[in-house]
Amino acid sequence: MHASNISPAQPKRVAFVDSIANLSDPLSSMSSMFSLVYLLTLAYQVRTPLPADQERLLTLMQTMTMSPTSTPLEERRPSTTDRPYTRQEITNSFIHFLSPVLNGMAGMLELLSSVDAFSRPEDFREFWSLDRSNLIRDFIESGGPLRRCLEGYDVPFLEAFVQDPTCRIALGKNAGALMLVPGDAQVGDDVWWDEEEERFTVTRPGDHGDLHFEEESWRAGLAVRSAT
Length: 228
What we know:
Layout: E1 4-5, E2 12-23, H1 33-44, H2 56-65, H3 87-102, H4 105-114, H5 121-127, E3 129-130, E4 133-134, H6 135-142, H7 157-161, E5 168-172, E6 178-181, E7 190-194, E8 199-203, E9 211-212
Parallel strand pairs: 1-8, 2-9
Antiparallel strand pairs: 2-5, 2-7, 3-4, 5-6, 7-8
């Protein structure tokens, strides 16, 4: 979903969502192992919806690709054909995006340490569920790198499916939901939902400009719902 800052000169009707507790690097920087591990750490920490009620990796994928101004994910097409990407092609492209951690011992060890996986091994295994599969189990059973031969694996996920790779993924302070926010957002910023433009906007704490909202419109815990 495209994200933006609120211009103080432009009144907006918005609903409060949450404050930013943690923030990823810009999505364009995910070629860095550190940045990718931290992005996965944020996804692991999601609390809304409850981990038992969602696939956290699917929630991350949906958050990264949401946009009201571009073609829906399931209708996007390769430049060489009029046929839309299949769900499996999109999923395999996302798996390739995750492959530096999945297929690399160093990245996996960093993530294990970051989320204290050794104290909750079952939760860590469940974290890798995606579209009725489990990537950790697939890796073990295949005995090597995942899905290199499958259709869509070589599609660059950020280029094909993310509208604005300068955006970041934020984790909400109160609800623990993932949100797509502008690249210049900071930890502690307030996140709002712009109902007219169907996107998240951010302001610095207490600097709300000419925002318009009704008491009943305030809400916390807006989250991307999993398809599970």
